[in-house]
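Translate sequence into structure tokens.
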Amino acid sequence: MSFKNKTAIVTGAGQGIGFEMCRQLALERAHVFLNDIDAAFAEDAAKQINQQGGTCTALAGDSSNISFIKEMVEAARRQTGHLDIVIANAGITLFGDFFAYPPESFNRVMQVNLAGTFFLAQAAAAVMKAQATGGSLLFTSSVTGHQAHKNLAAYGMSKAALEMLAKNLVIELSPFKINVNAIAPGATLTRRTMEDPTYTETWSRLTPMGSPATVADITNTALFLVSDKAKHITRQTLIVDGGWTSISPSPY
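Result follows.
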């Protein structure tokens, strides 16, 4: 799946799944614009990718800020002349008991997970609409948008909404050769999840395939959905969870 001469934006990509998406796109010869709210993470991640032979530009900033979203999209378009792929990967997880969940946490989850994705898609699609080649949008959802998970009511709600957004945008974007899909990762081994010393053992036991996903497992699926091989695929959500949603055992 060569992405030669493609321009891609990936948000929330300073580490973990987003970083691997950027790395693989860049190694497939795309010009990648890597976003993270943490400037040090963004710069270091882009530096690593460039040292491996890719072309990656760091764009540090809050991907839920509407002004920054517009600046980010314009920076990519201005530098390369086009925008082919946008992966709205940034998200925030704030656990909390439903009965005590504070409005501040709820509003932050919705701003990052929903507003950030919605307005990034809006800004990117406006650029793609003007291109004869269209483009591809991908939203990072979650298995918690499909199955209930304790203390994640707001987060799961936001992820389910992203999949509905992808469905609705088929009506808006298909005439302009823009496809839009979602990916729903399950338990995944990242630097953040590995901070929990019991994570691997717990999710290996709960996952039918016998282990959590790797960042490569998620990235391989994501890159297919934004590749030319998937141009006739739109409004789909691919769940990458080793079978967890089929039985949904809880770690609690």
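Note: Residues 40 and 60 are 8 Å apart (CA to CA).
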